[in-house]
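Notes from the 1:1 (GR / supervisor)

We went over the backlog. Supervisor wanted to see one worked example end to end before approving the batch request, so GR pasted a single chain during the call. The sequence is below; no edits were made to it. Supervisor asked that the structure be written out right there so they could see what the output format looks like.
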Amino acid sequence: MTSPSAPTSHLTGLRGTRYGEILLITSQAGQLTAVVYNTTGLNDCPPATWRSLDPRELAKDFGVPAVHLNGPRFWTLDQIAARATGEVLSFGGLDARRVAELPIPPDLDLAGGRYYRVITIRRETEWIFAAGLPVYELLTPDAKTYVMQAYSHIVDDSLTLDSLPALGDSLHLPQGWRYRTRTPDRDLTLRAAAGGAHVLQDEPQNTTCG
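Structure output shown during the call:
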């Protein structure tokens, strides 16, 4: 894996790589915002270190109202090109880099109840899926396609890359939605538009982008 060392970074060899995210949640003028720190390119989110993190203690350490732990996760893409990267902080011994900001709608529950709901994350990123390797997609009735960028062990730690083709059998998709696996014959690149990426999650908290 290529380690990011400049304001513009390019990470390769990511498919199947484990990572975690720490969200520092702040409030200003009544608007909640999650500042997202990601371990990719710095470490593989060691299980023992991740399990030792205490959100309440981290919130005290960083002087924020709350902290949300998002992970562990595993990339289902192959490369990430980021036009802007931020500071690296240590969270209980786990290094993570600032990668994005998420304005939190008032009725969004980060711990659940948000599935199949599109949210916008402020970031400058390209996600690249290599030709000849499978991608996992959600298709909506209005012809939108969301491609899985990462699967999660938050809910189901038995998920693997090999199990993803059958994932659709266990999802409770909204009316008219479909899950499919396909293998593109050319690299598939998804770009954040105007500094924003549109993402959603399913019940196992796998993340898709579109």
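Supervisor's comment: Helices lie at 47-52, 55-62.
Batch request approved.
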